[in-house]
Design brief:
3 copies of one chain form a homotrimer. By secondary structure, chain A is an alpha+beta fold. Chain A is built from 6 helices and 7 strands. Chain A has one domain: Nuclear Transport Factor 2, Chain: A. In chain A, β6 and β7 form a beta hairpin. The relative contact order of chain A is 0.16.
Chain lengths: 171, 171, 171
């Protein structure tokens, strides 16, 4: 026989996991609107605050940016021109696995660029978001981005789906 | 010491917010399947019921449609040909912020059109959905759509992400 | 006056539906990362386990694959070359309706292929996922895929949105 205390505890745990999943979706969904309006150094600094202070952003063809300062700098210059020419960084629905205050999300990113009266598909990539919850706020520890161009590197990212599916979310 | 009453109340509030987020995702996710099968005036009227009676749809390059009747009319003719030629209105994962019976969602929309044996990317846009919950049903009060073509208008929409991130959902 | 027992029961029902919606999103979100790293028969077998043993995959232009073995075989050969050349199967945010241990999800799928230093949009399709929960795990019974190329077949899939919107989720 399950007691009221046990039922409350079970509900609280389940709701905490549901809330964590929402927070992680929000974090990833906030990235696009932020970068697609970023054409100043101050805004680049704001984007970098999605990462923890010592976070990393490993972007295919652009290298590994280590720490918030380097991440912010990676947007300086070239990215501002992208924004002024018209660009859309569309993050896909993430597959999420939570393990306590850490989580992994696998998601597509598709970057479109305005060209004449249409858009071209510039980058389609596999992304692994390694996340950590700090004082109640989910943040990025490492984002790894690999173009879906046939490279074996894609498997190191999206191949993790099998291991993640074998686990359950845990508080 | 937290009482059973307090724990139940906290759970009920959290679950209500989670349900509201689901309902808002459903509302936005229903838009594409509806418009991509709309090639009659009766179906246009159905699409318009996603908005409140006095709702507005402000679409980049097509103007502001004020009220359900004008929104329905905006699909007459040209849109029907799009559907018959092949079109996909893909709404992205929304960033959602709830404030009582009102909510704001920021999301990408990408419109693909069939061309030969491929598809072209016709429109990639920033969208702000201003929503209101009427008698338990979330509806659109105003949808603002701005092409990601480098225009400063994008910042008025997606630039709101910073203000939304600074708030928490509230019942 | 609502009792503690009634409030607990209501919460448990609501949380069960929220968890089912998450599980269905995860199922659909896992498809892309799996197929975009599948270039061996063993991996094809893994993809097929997303379906029940007697499940079906009805893919526009490629026909109806009946049962896990046929579904796995449908990836042999041609699909492996797609992966080696670079391909992204981006599944969209699903519209979900749950009815006990069965559910229907409507979602876009967009398939991008690497071509030179860009990507082309190869397929944009309407998808209906008919799902069943077996021993606590949501699986695919039938996935129907129809290209958004102006064919009347699209209406048989995405036209279901009206009927689904008229219902509520049920346990």
């Amino acid at each position: 026989m399950t007691t009221v205390e046990e039922r409350l505890q079970a509900l609280e745990n389940k709701v905490a996991l549901l809330e964590a999943r929402e927070a992680i979706r929000q974090l990833i969904a906030s990235y696009g609107p932020m970068v697609d309006t970023t054409d100043t150094d101050e805004q680049s600094d704001m984007v970098a605050t999605l990462w923890i202070e010592g976070g990393k952003y490993d972007v295919d063809q652009y290298g590994l940016h280590d720490g918030r300062e380097k991440i912010a700098e990676s947007f300086h210059g070239f990215h501002y021109q992208l924004v002024r020419d018209g660009v859309g960084h569309v993050m896909g629905t993430p597959y999420i696995r939570i393990e306590g205050n850490r989580a992994t999300a696998l998601a597509y990113s598709t970057v479109f660029r305005a060209e004449g009266d249409r858009f071209v598909v510039w980058r389609v990539a596999a992304n692994e978001w390694n996340l950590v919850c700090v004082d109640g706020t989910w943040m990025v520890e490492l984002r790894t981005n690999r173009l879906l161009n046939g490279s074996d590197q894609v498997k190191a990212v999206f191949g993790k789906i099998h291991g993640l599916r074998a686990k359950a979310d845990t508080l």
